[in-house]
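Before relying on records like the one below, remember that each one covers exactly one chain. Contacts with other chains, cofactors or solvent are not represented anywhere in the record.
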Amino acid sequence: MYKYTNAEKQGILKVTINVKDWESAIEQAYEKNKGKYKVQGFRQGKVPRKVIEQNYGDTVFFDDAFNDVISKEFSKFLAENKDVRPASMPEVNMDSFTADKGVEATLTFDLMPEVTLGSLSTLKAKKAKVTVTEKDIEAEIEKMRNAHARFVEVETKAENGDIATIDFSGSVNGKKFDGGTSENYRLELGSHTFIEGFEDQVIGMKKGESKDVKVTFPEVYQEKSLQGKPAVFAVTVKKVERKELPEINDKFISNATEFETLDEYKKSLKEKLSLDADRKANFDYENSLIEEVVNGSKVDIPHSMIHDEAHYMIHNFEHRLEHQNMKLEDYLAYTGSNMDAFHDKMMVDAEKTVKTRLVLQKLVAENKIEVAEADLDGKLADYAAQYGMEVSEFKKNVSKDDMAYFENEILMDKIIGFLKSQNK
């Protein structure tokens, strides 16, 4: 049994669980968890409930039963009151528990906020004009030229841009530290791969030359024990290699690309760069349209929504760092930040994300923007064609998450199309 009160921006749900339903919840909690308890003289999983309660306390199944029964009551309430839209998980407080009345609890939760859309008649986003210059083309050719460079050993002093193969051994206060020693390390001078000042001191050294390179570790450094410490690296240059760039002509182009002449390659580059620039300009234009709508709209977002979104974003960020074998605390130390500052930044980003989502949902509802079955069939046909599959075969490999992704992709395309039609 429940009683609901709408207190402006919050919902308050009073829940009463009678004695019979409470006993049923306790029994279900026992059946679910009895395999976890050991009592001498009984096989694990076969211990009677009363025996477990005698050994582990009368309330041993209380928390599980309470959480389960409250969850079911909340779900039942939402199913019967579809106009109530929670913005957060409820905060649950047990009000009373008596043997003759059962359990009484209060669930308090934030409600989804009202969104007031800004006027679409004031949209004024512009798509940037795309211009590809000769300088842009030359820059791309120079990248390819550097990618095909070869390094030739020289006997002269190392210069900026050279590759120096070195042995080095670092120490702080005369003691070597982990990770401070290496042999035959190929270091590109001027790449700023090493501590500031290290590469500058290697410049001017020749093959076979040795010297002490003195540097100071940054105040913000991933290894805390080295932060701000002066260090000495004994460095020996084993080899110096200098970059030799190929001459850009028809012969080089025919060897390095599918084109026969430099002019053909330049023409192709211009087309590619123009296409890439147009895609970026269109992406920026579409984002500007969404930003205008979001910035012009009003919504009082509950703190709980922002908080939940921020923690979701932090969890995802930590997960991505794990794939790079890095922990969040190491990343924060490396970037000179801390958890408080990082959390504050995520809260700001989360507020923007939540507001954008709420505004777009309101925009979709007010303007009846929908994904039709024909739209989805077309999207699936496009993806099937990309993989060289029949649509029927492709559908067999599409999960519910995939389908939700496709639907969202179509919906976003329709939202963008609608905003473009409104843009003056």
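Residues 150-244 form a domain with the Chitinase A; domain 3 fold (CATH 3.10.50.40).
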